[in-house]
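Project outcomes to date are best conveyed with an example. Our students and postdoctoral researchers have been running inverse folding experiments weekly, and each run begins with a structure described purely in tokens. The record below, which covers 205 residues, was selected by the lab manager from last quarter's runs and is presented without edits.
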């Protein structure tokens, strides 16, 4: 979801653990495998963006806004057992809107549609996988933003800077490894749902 080379969601991940034929896959790698096609489609849609240009940066942040609001709002009401203990510190929709406001883009008059109440809390790790994975590609995108000659662009990088130096992806990956194997299928559904939201937000019109 970052417009850079493939692999950005899990960039820097170590090789998956090897086990016997019947060993369950680490959830992180199962999520990556099951969402690979969706991730490729999303990256392809952003590949032409130049985030040093204000118009492209606004388009990028605008495409991120509704899915982040929808997912984070739903996660706020999810079972705490299905969320990392530092969930509140990982939220980014507020700083995302602060960047857009700094670029003279007001919040929408109508809030994005909420996620269906029929979602299981067991889908939360998959939804989070997509949000947290975007931090890695965001490190690459931040370099484009900070190189912009436009002060409104490089002065509004709260979203892409969020969590800098805190190693939030490694701690999230460790937490994913604690998820019950019985909930892996639900987590994969959650990740697929998240990618679908971002693809819909990215679509023209």
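After processing, the design step wrote out the following sequence:
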């Amino acid at each position: 979801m970052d417009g850079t080379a493939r692999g950005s969601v899990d960039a820097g991940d170590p090789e998956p653990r090897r086990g016997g034929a019947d060993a369950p896959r680490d959830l992180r790698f199962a999520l990556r495998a099951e969402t690979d096609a969706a991730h490729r489609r999303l990256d392809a849609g952003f590949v032409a963006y130049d985030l040093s240009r204000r118009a492209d940066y606004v388009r990028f942040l605008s495409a991120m806004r509704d899915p982040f609001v929808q997912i984070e709002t739903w996660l706020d009401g999810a079972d705490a057992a299905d969320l990392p203990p530092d969930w509140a510190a990982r939220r980014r929709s507020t700083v995302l809107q602060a960047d857009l406001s700094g670029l003279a883009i007001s919040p929408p008059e109508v809030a994005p549609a909420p996620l269906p109440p029929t979602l299981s809390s067991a889908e939360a790790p998959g939804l989070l996988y997509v949000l947290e994975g975007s931090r890695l590609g965001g490190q690459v995108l931040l370099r484009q933003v900070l190189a912009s000659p436009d002060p409104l662009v490089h002065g509004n990088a709260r979203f892409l800077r969020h969590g800098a130096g805190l190693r939030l992806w490694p701690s999230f990956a460790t937490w994913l490894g604690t998820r019950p194997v019985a909930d892996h299928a639900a987590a994969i559904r959650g990740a697929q749902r998240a990618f679908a939201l971002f693809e819909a937000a990215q679509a023209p019109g």
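The radius of gyration is 17 Å. Residues 2-24 have pLDDT under 50 and may be disordered. The training component of this project remains on track.
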